[in-house]
Design a protein that fits this description.
Elements: H1 3-6, H2 10-26, H3 34-39, H4 48-56, H5 60-90, H6 97-121
Length: about 130
Amino acid sequence: MTTLVRLRVTPAVVAVTAAAGALLGTGIVSIPCWFHAMTGADCPFCGGSRALGALLHGDVAGALRFNAFAVLVLLPAAVAALVLLGRTELGLRIPCWAVRRNALVALGIATVAWWLVRDVAFPGLQV
């Protein structure tokens, strides 16, 4: 059985993720931030859609200005999750649960740290 035949879920997840990213990044679909609407403060993901749009246009500096955390941490984490899904589907070796759990905890801590730095320590920070 070829590799492409064994991959059933991963290509669909990649296609849906790419389509959603393209729709959000180009502004065709806009999802308002409920946290910003309720509090007036930015959430850790505010500017993420605009950053993705800037990346789609090849503007890395602009993307980093909109939301550096989304570009430097969340996009690579999403790619790693898709790779992990593909490896799981192919039956290849994947990191043990402790490693994945620690990575998720580190991602959560980094998200909260970014949020605090962005909104509390330096309000209005655009990076």
